[in-house]
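Appendix B, example 12.
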Amino acid sequence: MQLFHCPFCGTRDETEFHFGGEAGNIRPDGADVPADRWANYLYMRDNPKGAVREVWVHMNCGEFFVMERDSVGHEVVSSTSLDGAGHAR
């Protein structure tokens, strides 16, 4: 069992969380976006080995936040609310 830290509720079991995607993957804006740009947004991921920044949601409270973690050792470095309002771990 892995423990994640919700910036709003504290440390909880990983089963209470859902992965939301890479942090910084910005949705293209506008109706005239080329198909290859939509495909890149939807399907292409960096998948780095090591430090990553990801968006997660705590299913119990419904809050989204950014988690920084190591993708190799699964160590959580920090969890911060999306508004950056000082809920860092």
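Residues 35-43 form the longest helix (9 residues). The radius of gyration is 15 Å.
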